[in-house]
Amino acid sequence: MAILVTGGAGYIGSHTAAALLERGEEVVVLDNLQTGHRQAADGCTHFYEGDIRDEALLDRIFGSHEIDAVIHFAANSLVQESMTDPGKYYHNNVYGTLCLLERMRANGVKRIVFSSTAAVYGEPERVPIEETDKTEPANAYGETKLAMERMIRWFDAAHGIQNVSLRYFNAAGAHESGRIGEDHAPETHLVPIVLQAALGKRPHVAIFGDDYPTADGTCIRDYIHVSDLADAHLLAVDRLRRGEGSAVYNLGSGRGYSVREIIEQARRETGRDIPVVVQPRRAGDPAVLVASSERAKRELGWNPRRSDIGTIIRTAWAWHTAHPEGYGDR
Ligand SMILES: NC(=O)c1ccc[n+]([C@@H]2O[C@H](COP(=O)([O-])OP(=O)(O)OC[C@H]3O[C@@H](n4cnc5c(N)ncnc54)[C@H](O)[C@@H]3O)[C@@H](O)[C@H]2O)c1
Ligand SMILES: O=c1ccn([C@@H]2O[C@H](COP(=O)(O)OP(=O)(O)O[C@H]3O[C@H](CO)[C@H](O)[C@H](O)[C@H]3O)[C@@H](O)[C@H]2O)c(=O)[nH]1
């Protein structure tokens, strides 16, 4: 039996593919390399460079391998871009997922683990956020992810496609081997930006707003180690293979850090100076996002053991110092 990983050459997908391979699974990756890196999927059993919207290719893949589950990462995921070009997000994320589900149905593939996001909640009513809290996305990206979750649920109701949607909070850190890590161009995520500034590859870190209603005025986020996220995908596949039914889980550490706290921690871990410049707020940023992941711990047996902020920054720093140009393919 094999697992199809869409977006397996991307940041979280490559770490999940690595974890699947580490436990002896056969891994088939489908990635169009629009943001991913071929090298990040080295070692995967099969690699297809192509698009999830190519239904003939999907049929060929499902026809060539005994795929019993799909893990679906492939998407566009830049919040700001989604506000200026929502059509791109509906086409790749929503229509792309429709193509995937249709070909799964046609080929009798009945299990999917889906990359959802904290962005489905929008501005939270309370923290920590629970899965039953109101979902009211504040940007087009989050809106497409919620639409994808719902579409998958309707395919379950009609065609029995069992699913687990995993709502990640802020993915960060790198594989302990130092072989794979985060490499986005342009980079928009705080942790890699802070470490690029520590390396001298950026003149400073721009803090987007220091007038939020938090202790130091900067936004608070829940950072979760990418390999802990990877573990949750394996547990979600196990749940589906046991036939325990569809579910939705938040994945976070349950602890929030402000932007200034992340920068301070990075100064400590790297011993480097990290200049900062305060800029205006970024549109659509909630002040505080922190997850309750009690359901994932209880029902999946998930144990995020690498998500203390020291381990997150240390593993990310090891990746950035060893690969100052990332994968070097852009
Ligand atoms: N990084 C985070 O903090 C975060 C948080 C919440 C949710 N997510 C979600 O997790 C998933 C992975 O995020 P990431 O940070 O690893 O992103 P990424 O951009 O590194 O990975 C996405 C991968 O999908 C591929 N891809 C995109 N569209 C495709 C298509 N049409 N066909 C084939 N391949 C395609 C890209 O080339 C890339 O390799 C995304 O769905 C994202 O929305 C990420
Ligand atoms: O140069 C920067 C970059 C970020 N930030 C701040 O740092 C925090 C974290 O920002 P990121 O861009 O790293 O992450 P987001 O919280 O915006 O986004 C993450 O969580 C979202 C859900 O809310 C989506 O899922 C998205 O894909 C995922 O990366 C935010 O307060 C942001 O304003 C800065 O101050 N300066």
TrEMBL record:
Enzymatic reactions: UDP-alpha-D-glucose = UDP-alpha-D-galactose
Keywords: Carbohydrate metabolism, Galactose metabolism, Isomerase, NAD
Class of this enzyme: isomerase
Cofactor dependency: NAD(+)
Keyword check for Amino-acid biosynthesis: no
GO molecular function: UDP-glucose 4-epimerase activity
SUPFAM superfamilies assigned to the protein according to its UniProt record, in alphabetical order: NAD(P)-binding Rossmann-fold domains
Entry's family note: Belongs to the NAD(P)-dependent epimerase/dehydratase family.
Subunit structure: Homodimer.
Protein name (database record): UDP-glucose 4-epimerase
Organism, scientific name: Thermobacillus xylanilyticus
Gene name in the database record: txxe 1571-galE
